[in-house]
Design a protein that fits this description.
There is one protein chain. The chain has 9 helices and 10 strands. By secondary structure, it is of the alpha/beta class. It has one domain: P-loop containing nucleotide triphosphate hydrolases (Rossmann fold), CATH 3.40.50.300.
């Protein structure tokens, strides 16, 4: 069995020359969920965006997605295989209605109208949002927006999904609903999060970023313990609000 994503010795610098990733090695295997942990500014989101070719700047090393090297001529094929759920759902929802938003990706793939409609119905059903198909996205709650944005990703039938802080802005019921949906999906998932409970609920493996490098990897509990995040998380929980 081959990994879906294979990264070897990835170095990346922003356009101004600032180093962001330093020798990253990473693999994502079919059906697994990997939690990507680390402090703000450690390179997590930059790494995630890099997997889709969504950052400008200079990179060295190898990124291979399903046998395709991450090069400009392969971007279209790679972006059809990888879906991404952004931290802010408003970055993904821009059409007048939910139905049109979910249909946007499949339509741009050139699919027939009946196939587009089938995918829209199926993906909205997967996230429990069929009842809002005709509503404007800006009328929805944060949790509803997140689920609709995920429906738009699922309508593209990706083999893997990248998630950038998916529990941000969500209240406990919305968060629980999202966890249930993500657990039910067959796609491999790469999950950037500061939410240790979410990592425990969804991931079978974790990597820890520090100053652009993966310095720890292994089981979720083991990585959390070795990074000292359990203590830090407890201190945050006990802090006055």
């Amino acid at each position: 069995m081959e990994p879906l994503i294979q990264v070897r010795n990835l170095h990346y610098s922003y356009p101004d020359g600032t180093p962001a990733l330093r020798g990253v090695d990473f693999e994502l295997w079919p059906a697994e969920t990997v939690a990507v942990l680390g402090a703000n500014g450690s390179g997590k989101t930059t790494f995630l965006l890099h997997l889709l070719g969504l950052v400008g700047g200079k990179s060295e090393g190898d990124v291979v997605v399903r046998g395709l090297a991450l090069r400009k001529e392969n971007f279209t094929k790679i972006r059809r295989m990888i879906g991404m759920l952004f931290q802010d759902s408003d970055d993904q929802l821009f059409m007048p209605t939910v139905e049109e938003d979910v249909a946007f990706g499949p339509l741009n793939m050139g699919l027939a109208q009946d196939e587009v409609e089938r995918r829209v119905r199926q993906s909205l059903r997967q996230v429990g949002m069929e009842h809002v198909a005709s509503r404007p996205p800006y009328h929805l709650s944060a949790g509803e927006k997140r689920r609709v944005a995920l429906a738009g990703v699922l309508a593209m039938s990706p083999e893997m999904i990248l998630l950038d802080e998916p529990s941000t802005f969500l209240d406990p019921p919305a968060r629980s609903s999202l966890v249930e949906i993500l657990r039910s999906l067959p796609q491999a998932q790469c999950l950037v999060t500061h939410d240790l409970t979410l990592a425990r609920q969804l991931a079978s493996r974790a990597v820890y970023f520090e100053k652009g490098e993966i310095t720890l990897q292994g089981g979720v509990e083991d990585v959390i313990a070795r990074a000292g995040w359990e203590t830090l998380d407890a201190r945050r929980s006990d802090a006055p609000r």
